[in-house]
Amino acid sequence: MIEVETIEVVGAVIINEQKQILCALRSETMSMPNHWEFPGGKLEEGENKEEALIREIDEELGCKIQVKEKVIDTHHQTVSVIVHLHTYVAKVIEGKPKAREHAQLKWVKVNELSQLHWAPADLPTVAWLQRKFGNYSGQGS
Q: What is the pTM of this model?
């Protein structure tokens, strides 16, 4: 039997004042190119999940975030690895997100998230957001 490695990763559901979610398009050089995801990355040895998320967002997007409540834990198995994804709600507290590693970033209303082609590990988080916010369009006050 082949031993399958589990990778611990964190993702940020970054929400702005208009209640839009920051979505990141995986670039051609990444695994699963042209899939949308919540930005984040792998935990490094000795880091807790919140520290890893703050570091990853700083590296990937060049901004500082405040990590808020945990959203959901998901597992997604590929041929060679199991991805254990921990997602957290976060907000930008310093700087403006820039696509340093991703092909594109965009702010998306919750009711439009399902229009994007998501990485499989992120789909449960999309469903959670749609349940939590319903059909909120992100418009108005």
A: 0.88
Q: Percentage of residues in the chain with pLDDT exceeding 90?
A: 74
CA count, 13 A, side-chain hemisphere, 15 = 19
Domain count, the chain: 1
The residue segments making up the domain with residue 14 are: 5-133
Nearest to 107 by CA among 80, 131, 137: 137
pLDDT for residue 2 is more than 70: no
User: In this structure, which amino acid lies at residue 20?
Assistant: Q
Place of tokens 């959203």: 71
CATH of the domain at 72: 3.90.79.10
Span 62-120, pLDDT tens digits: 999 999 999 999 998 887 889 899 999 999 999 999 999 999 999 999 999 999 999 99
DSSP classification of residue 102: S
> Which residue's structure tokens are 């929400």?
15
Residue 138 has pLDDT above 50, yes or no: no
3-state secondary structure of 141: coil
In a domain, 79, yes or no: yes
